[in-house]
Amino acid sequence: MIPELGHVSLIIAFGLAIGLTVVPFWGSMRTNVSAMNLAPSLAVGVLVFTAIAFGLLAISFLRDDFSVAVVAANSNSLLPPLFKFSALWGNHEGSLLLWVLILAGWMTAVSFLSRGLPLVMIARVLSVMGLIAVGFLAFSLLTSNPFERLLPNTPADGSDLNPLLQDPGLIIHPPLLYMGYVGLSVPFAFAIAALIGGRLDASWARWSRPWTNVAWGFLTLGIMLGSWWAYYELGWGGWWFWDPVENASFMPWLMGTALVHSLAVTEKRGVFRSWTVLLAIFAFSLSLLGTFLVRSGVLTSVHAFAADPERGLFILVFLAVVVGGSLLLYALRAPTVASRVEYAVISRESLLMVNNLIFIVAATIVLLGTLFPLVMDALSLGKYSVGPPYFNAVFVPLMALLMPFMTVGPVSRWRQDSPRRWLHELLIPAIAVVVLAPVLSVMLFTFNLWVALAVLLAGWVSLGVLRGLWHRLRVGSTAALQWHRLTPSFLGMTLAHIGFAAVVLGAVVVTQHSEERDLRMAEGDSADLGGYRFEMTRISQQPGANYVADQASFLVTKGETVIAVLTPEKRRYLASGQVMTEAAIDAGILRDLYIALGEPVGEGAWAVRLQYKPMVRWLWVGAFFIGLGALVTALDRRYRVQAVARQGTDVANQGLEFAG
Amino acid sequence: MHPHRKQRLIWVSLIVVLSSAAIGLVAFALRDNINLFYPPADVVAGKAPLDRNIRLGGMVVEGSIERSDTSLTTQFLVTDYEASVAVRYTGILPDLFDEGQGVVAEGRLDETGALVATQVLAKHDENYMPPEVAAALEGKSKVSLGPVSP
Description:
The complex is a heterodimer.
Chain A: H1 2-30, H2 33-62, H3 69-74, H4 81-86, H5 92-113, H6 119-143, H7 168-183, H8 185-197, H9 202-233, H10 244-269, H11 273-295, H12 309-337, H13 348-378, E1 384-386, H14 388-411, H15 419-444, H16 449-475, H17 479-485, H18 488-513, E2 515-521, E3 526-529, E4 532-543, E5 547-558, E6 561-566, E7 569-573, E8 579-582, E9 584-586, E10 591-602, E11 605-614, H19 617-633, H20 637-647, H21 651-659
Helix pairs in contact in A: 1-2, 1-6, 2-5, 2-6, 5-6, 5-7, 6-8, 6-12, 7-9, 8-9, 8-11, 9-10, 9-19, 10-11, 10-13, 11-12, 13-14, 14-16, 15-16, 16-17, 16-18, 18-19
Chain B: H1 3-33, E1 34-38, H2 40-44, E2 54-60, E3 66-67, E4 73-79, E5 84-90, E6 102-109, E7 115-122, H3 131-137
Parallel strand pairs in B: 1-2, 5-7
Antiparallel strand pairs in B: 2-4, 2-6, 3-4, 4-5, 6-7
């Protein structure tokens, strides 16, 4: 009974989403206030019924209702309850439901937090988002019904959640990532609504900017968690594989990065308007493309859900409609919204343009490398794969090119600036960094040209940002005034840029200075790596909740001091019989020590992989700062002030004013 | 020149320079870093190049896995039920690597026609089959490959 109720609420949500697409939009074209006023209630309705469906599916998982197909395929009675719950989104059908739930959440948030917006705008934004919800709900109901039953042949027990996914990282990685993916639909909807209304101004940019920053911040955190999860869970100590599905999340991130910066220009200076709109369309299109890549089964990837051509076709058509439709609208309307504001070549506008160009080129390059094998295959020209060396060869120089500009940007002035002033601002950081780079890279490790360059660039970015911070503090005369000048948007930017510098530094150091040995080890054997001694002291069997593990104990020493006792495991999961590696890590700011067990190789010996990973944590801490910075910017007072200031005025009047 | 035009000219040239540099980089990087996939039958027929990395996929032949007693080198046969190719790999194999399972190995062919692999990928869960392997095996096998969708 419960699954059927869930199915029914999903159908009701679908009906409400159709209403949300049609009614407020019709109202906005006919200036019918009551039709437009329906938008927020309909959005809430979609959320409520999707949430009911989601909750009922969760109940089916928690109650081990193996008559539901997805429960039987992805859960097991031995699974700990928390993993039963997260198993809900460890599969195609359930994760799609999560996608829709989060979309409905964003719609509701927009309708509650945008009370100051003209009614016409709210109606159109929500109706565009409603259209996206219609597409995904139809996708769920028609091709991937999560409530499908296995009656009367109900299995006695489920075939278990893939052990790789039985991990706390998986509980939060997909929701965070989807918050980002789906959140990009908000700036997209704002862009489409603005194109329809033919009005794109600074206040439009001010509305969509906090939403974009928050969505992009979540996307950053989601990608970061995914990378971290892959590092400790997959057992080979890598943190980025240029796997097509990683790329699927990275492309919207790159495009979103361009969008976040271009929105800043549009808000502050009113330029780049049509450009910003185009970026918003691209960013969301790439996030839809990512969905297509992951769910259509066209990819070979650890992430890919099982193939079903019907599903692939559905998303491909949806993708074509959304991208094609919005680009067509753009082509028709963009000329009417273009801006005519002057700025000099030497100005902050230009630097942000450089940022935009670099990130778009980067996204294009990743897109090329990801789609190349698919296109070749589709044209029957052979089955190719494009490996990490391609991506590294093109991506690394681009990021290196980006960083010098990244420092100048925040200290430069809008409209017009001079290289002389830049020199004046940045001479001291430049000297400091040139002196520090070789010294630091030698002090930390042996000298390495790439690390020295990374220290140089990362130092350059951080010192430039700190210089900007100092500037702000110096200008105010009292402490209160100084504090006031540190607006959340400024602090957020500072955090994010320093985070980026940390990511670059971590990535280069871990790539250049990592050490790795694959060994055959038995009890009593020891090996040296990265200045540490690893001794295997014991091998034993340990029972777990739903698995049995072969556990090895390692004593890690440096000289005479004991550093850690590490216990990597090889687990065999009882329900599926699947074997999985559980790596043991001794984490630190400057280095991780990483041990993973391979397979038994006879006579009590095991294949063992030892790794020394210097500064690998900086990657995730840095990425965390980037995401956090983006979220902080949304707290800026000016976004709230505008909402309050607008509340007094007559909403209907504003609606009329905008409809023209 | 009109300032607006001048501005536009600068941007257009910047975009042209940046994108041609990017295209150059892409072409250069693609040249060495794309690997073509070959089923074992093609390798045995001599269709695969010897001087560059290739990807080989198929099923691991039952009883063909031989492990060295002193090192981490493993040798096994990969088949598409028409022909089989020996693969040699030193290092840790993925968790789901096993006899009778689908596998993709990446590396170079040596003069004996064996593949010296730098990377071995197995499927990541019970139900999943790498698409290349599924395509290479299609119509050639009497045994079930297992469901492609759960």
